[in-house]
Design goal:
The longest helix has 6 residues, at about 205-210. This protein has one helix at about 205-210, and strands at about 1-5, 10-15, 20-25, 30-35, 40-45, 50-55, 60-65, 70-75, 80-85, 85-95, 100-105, 115, 130-135, 140-150, 150-155, 165-170, 175-180, 185-195, 215-220, 225-230, 235, 245, 255-260, 265-270, 285-290. Residues about 300-309 have low confidence and may be disordered. About 0% of the residues lie in helices and about 50% in strands.
Length: about 300
C-alpha cells in the first residue's frame, strides 16, 4: 500500500473554520465554511477565496443545477437553497423529512439531487437513530428514499448514472444503491467495509470502535473512491474494497475531499484539528490542502463527485 504524508501536499487556503462540500466547477473550487456561514470560491491559480454567498443556517453540501445555478444545503433549518441573480431562494424544504441537520448532497445531470441528514442524536454518547436519504426532483419536490443508513455522509454517483455510493460514518462502510425508476434507491449493498461496525450506534462508539469513520468521498476513472476519514486522513479504496493508498496529515483529520483542477488530477482535502479538541470560533485552523494524484477524477454526472466539468 502506498503511503503519503503532509510533505506531499500543498496548502491552498487556511485560517478557515470547518470546510465541507467541495466541488470543482467552472475552473474553480467551491466549498462551504461552516462557522462563518459562507460559501467560498477559489479560482485556479489564486490564493484568496471569494465569498459567493452567506447562508445564515450553516451551509454544507453544494451542487449545480442544469442552468449552472448553485444549490446549497442549509443545514440547521433543513432546506436546500438556490442562488438566483445573487440572492438565495428556497429550492426545497426538507424539514418534514430530515430527522436531523442536513449535510451532504449530490446533484444529478437532470438537476435532481440526493441529500443526507444526521438522523436523531442528542449528543455524542446518546443513542443514534438511523435515517434515510432524501430525493429532490428538479422542481424542488422531495421524498425519502432507500433503506435506513447510519449517518449518511459523502455521496457520489457512478459515471453511468446508475449507482449511488454513500459513506455511512457510523457504520465504517461505503454502501451502494441502484438508482431505479423515478430516482428510487434499491438493491442496497456494502461496497466497501472499512472496519468493524460499532456495537453501539453512538458518535463516541464510532470513533472508538476501531474502524474508519468515512466522511466525504470522490470517484476516479478507475472506479476507486478517495475517502475522507474523519478519525484519520484520507484513503483510496478500490471497487474490491481494498485500501491501496493513504494520505496522512498528523494531528489533523480530513472531513471532505474533491477531485478537481484543470486535469481532474488534484485531490483537494478539507482538514481541521480533531473535533473533540477544536474550537473553530476561538482559533480557526481549518485548511484546504491539495495532493496530485495519478488517476484523474470522473467528470459526470454533473456535480456528482466533487469533480465537475
Amino acid at each position: 500500500m502506498k503511503r503519503s504524508d503532509v510533505a506531499d501536499v500543498r496548502k491552498v487556503a487556511d485560517g478557515l473554520t470547518f470546510l465541507e462540500g467541495p466541488r470543482w466547477h467552472n475552473n474553480a473550487l467551491w466549498f462551504s465554511d461552516f462557522y462563518t456561514n459562507r460559501v467560498l470560491r477559489l479560482e485556479e491559480g489564486t490564493a484568496v477565496p471569494q465569498v459567493v454567498c452567506e447562508v445564515p443556517n450553516q451551509p454544507s453540501g453544494l451542487g449545480f443545477d442544469t442552468q449552472g445555478r448553485l444549490l446549497v444545503v442549509s443545514m440547521t433549518d433543513r432546506r436546500v437553497m438556490r442562488l438566483e441573480r445573487g440572492e438565495l431562494v428556497e429550492h426545497a424544504d426538507l424539514s418534514a423529512l430530515a430527522q436531523g441537520h442536513c449535510n451532504d448532497m449530490v446533484v444529478m445531470a437532470d438537476g435532481s439531487a440526493y441529500v443526507g441528514n444526521h438522523g436523531r442524536c442528542d449528543g455524542p454518547d446518546q443513542q443514534y437513530s438511523p435515517t434515510r436519504l432524501i430525493r429532490i426532483d428538479a422542481d424542488g419536490s422531495a421524498r425519502a428514499v432507500g433503506a435506513e443508513l447510519n449517518f449518511p455522509n459523502g455521496m457520489v454517483v457512478t459515471d453511468d448514472g446508475g449507482t449511488l455510493l454513500v459513506a455511512e460514518s457510523l457504520a465504517s462502510r461505503i454502501s451502494a444503491f441502484t438508482i431505479g425508476a423515478g430516482g428510487d434507491l434499491v438493491d442496497r449493498r456494502v461496497w466497501a467495509a472499512l472496519g468493524p461496525v460499532p456495537p453501539v450506534t453512538t458518535f463516541s462508539a464510532a470513533f472508538a470502535g476501531g474502524g474508519l469513520v468515512p466522511d466525504g468521498i470522490a470517484l476516479d476513472v478507475e472506479g476507486a473512491l478517495w475517502v475522507a476519514v474523519a478519525n484519520e486522513g484520507a484513503v483510496r479504496v478500490t471497487p474490491e474494497g481494498e485500501i491501496v493508498q493513504t494520505i496522512e496529515v498528523p494531528g489533523e483529520s480530513v472531513f471532505a475531499v474533491a477531485l478537481g483542477g484543470p486535469a481532474l488530477r488534484t485531490l483537494y482535502l478539507c482538514v481541521a484539528p480533531p473535533l473533540a479538541s477544536y474550537n473553530p470560533h476561538e482559533h480557526p485552523r481549518a485548511r484546504m490542502l491539495a495532493y496530485e494524484v495519478e488517476v484523474k477524477g470522473v467528470g459526470g454526472p454533473r456535480s456528482q463527485n466533487s469533480a465537475n466539468r
